[in-house]
Design brief:
This protein is α/β, with parallel strands linked by helices. 27% of the residues lie in helices and 27% in strands. It contains nine helices and 16 strands. It binds NADP nicotinamide-adenine-dinucleotide phosphate.
């Protein structure tokens, strides 16, 4: 096969950079499926990896892109045949294995999810890791007895990818949602997604005592650090906090009080290594009860591979509302 384009990341003398590169199938990591990629997306993790701001990549050089959707071109697995539509999120893609920012992707069939009915290749990447992760949050919270009666759900980093889907999905399931966003310009957008209130973290004036007034029935937290610590103290009895991200800080300094005096649970959300049976269950829910009438309003921008460096800067500089989709 001829050469094709991929956004490949390199490390030279401790300097990390990514660039559009011509490669062949021989350059790709091994796997029993070759997929012709149609769409990918830009996640916070993709930006951390390609800019070197986070230690994401486990090998060099590597094609970035933790998400991909496309058409099976060649299969050595009995589970898939040429022409099948598939998606992959996480599973080491764009982290330990050449990822989705490439015209062709070679993967393990164990990572591939058949595109669910009622979802297009493009829609699957509008959701991508962000939508899938928000789906895990909702699912784990429900499994741990979250109900709308326990009170509103706070969503931090609300205008981002996970945040947008968190707001939309919780509202769709009947929860009152308080979207916490630092972007004044995103208030209308978040209300359209279903938030009943949009407020900045500063204006919420959360306290720093071990236990504070129970303001929220639960939370989806994309920030970590101080925001997460303060939120925990404001969760009402037996509520759940889904810990998703570290957009503000990876640290957490808290006390055991919310856990031992209020029965609050902190649920770990790790989408990249989510077990396959749960993965399929979440994608089925995404394609049915969690799919909004329209998701095009969640697309910040549709870009090409060559636009990735700008997209990485935008996402790290907090300039993105919703999702950046990569058309391959
Ligand atoms: N655990 C998992 O499996 C998993 C999966 C996906 C993502 N993540 C993590 O979850 C977080 C969100 O990911 P994403 O892809 O949705 O990213 P994103 O689209 O960039 O959204 C992050 C949002 O967080 C807020 N934010 C960003 N930097 C901030 C800062 N320094 N201080 C305070 N707020 C800040 C911004 O929202 P506002 O402007 O609205 O405040 C931003 O839009 C990231 O930390 C990512 O690594 C984890």
């Amino acid at each position: 096969m001829d050469k094709f384009q991929a956004f490949r990341c390199f490390k030279e003398d401790k300097k990390i950079y990514g660039k559009l590169t011509e490669i062949t199938l021989e350059d790709l990591d091994k796997g029993d499926l070759i997929v012709e990629a149609k769409y990918s997306s830009v996640n916070f993790k993709d930006a951390l990896g390609a800019t070197g701001k986070g230690h994401i990549f486990k090998k060099w050089p590597i094609n970035g892109g933790i998400d991909v959707s496309g058409i099976v071109l060649e299969s050595k697995s009995p589970s898939f045949k040429k022409g099948d539509l598939v998606l992959v999120t996480g599973c080491g893609l764009g982290e330990a294995h050449d990822g989705g920012y490439s015209k062709f992707v070679r993967i393990s069939s164990e990572w591939a999810i058949p595109i669910p009915k009622n979802l297009s290749l493009e829609e699957s990447m509008i959701f991508g890791t962000a939508g899938f992760t928000a789906g895990i949050c909702l699912h784990r919270m429900e499994v741990n007895d979250q109900t709308p009666e326990k009170g509103p759900i706070a969503v931090t980093g609300a205008s981002g990818g996970v945040g947008s889907f968190g707001v939309m999905m919780m509202a769709k399931k009947g929860y009152e949602v308080v979207a916490i966003s630092g972007k004044e310009s995103s208030h209308d957008y978040l209300k359209q997604l279903g938030a009943s209130k949009v407020v900045s973290l500063e204006k919420l004036e959360l306290g720093s005592r071990p236990l504070e007034k129970g303001k929220f029935g639960g939370a989806i937290d994309n920030l970590g650090g101080e925001a997460l610590a303060k939120l925990l103290a404001h969760i009402s009895p037996w509520g759940n906090v889904a810990s998703v991200g570290l957009a503000a800080h990876h640290g957490l300094q808290s006390t055991v009080m919310p856990f031992i005096l209020r029965g609050v649970s902190m649920l770990g959300i790790s989408s990249a290594n989510c077990p396959m049976d749960l993965r399929k269950k979440i994608w089925d829910r995404i394609a049915s009860e969690l799919k909004p009438e329209t998701i095009s309003n969640m697309v910040h921008k549709k870009i090409k591979l060559e636009d990735l460096p700008t997209a990485f800067e935008d996402i790290l500089n907090r300039k993105v509302q919703g999702r950046i989709i990569v058309e391959i």
